[in-house]
Design goal:
By secondary structure, this protein is mostly helical. It has helices at 5-32, 37-63, 84-110, 114-143, 147-157. Helix 1 (5-32) runs antiparallel to helix 3, helix 2 (37-63) crosses helix 5 (147-157) and helix 3 packs antiparallel against helix 4 (114-143). Keywords: Iron, Iron storage, Metal-binding, Oxidoreductase.
Length: 175
């Protein structure tokens, strides 16, 4: 089968999603180690969500008989200067993933790959939500008078919870 730019970027995105998952675990552990259970829980959940995204790309490749290679990932950042730094990193990560998803969509369109383009639509919608959610969390962190306000915000707003029935299937099933 002839490799296309979309096919290549799709394979790379699996690695990007797994890397995001690992980075979120590192952030969660950092917050957990500082006895901030709601921030830790939020980022543990974000890690699972990114893992599920990676496996959505895997399932798509399986469904289209594109072959699968699970790439390794680079080291993640494990130490931060203060409580807003991990959230700022997460926001930058979500912005970077948004650009990656936009590039995938654009290449699918350029290659006249209607199935690929349709698959990427859900991820475009998801990235709008991810960037907005992380941006709000960073704003709350920067405005909060103390960390308990941030913890209470996460409980009160149930940030990042809920399943999206329109989400693509994940290989092995979503967690």
């Amino acid at each position: 089968m002839n490799k296309t730019s979309f096919d290549q970027l799709l394979g790379e995105q699996i690695g990007h999603e797994f890397a995001a998952s690992q980075q979120y675990i590192a952030i969660a552990v950092w917050f957990d180690n500082r006895d901030l259970p709601q921030l830790a829980k939020h980022f543990y959940r974000q890690s699972i969500e990114e893992r599920n995204h990676a496996l959505m790309f895997v399932q798509y490749r399986l469904d289209r008989d594109l072959g699968i290679i699970i790439p390794g990932i680079d080291s993640v950042i494990n130490d931060f200067t203060d409580e807003s730094a991990p959230i700022a990193l997460a926001l930058e990560q979500e912005k970077r993933v948004t650009k990656q998803i936009e590039a995938l969509f654009a290449v699918a369109r350029t290659e006249n790959d209607a199935l690929g383009e349709q698959f990427m639509l859900w991820f475009l919608k998801e990235q709008v939500e991810e960037v907005a959610s992380m941006s709000t969390l960073l704003t709350i962190m920067n405005r909060a008078e103390n960390l308990f306000d941030v913890e209470n915000y996460l409980v009160r707003e149930s940030v990042g919870e809920g399943n999206d029935a329109s989400a693509p299937a994940s290989a092995g099933g979503a967690l």
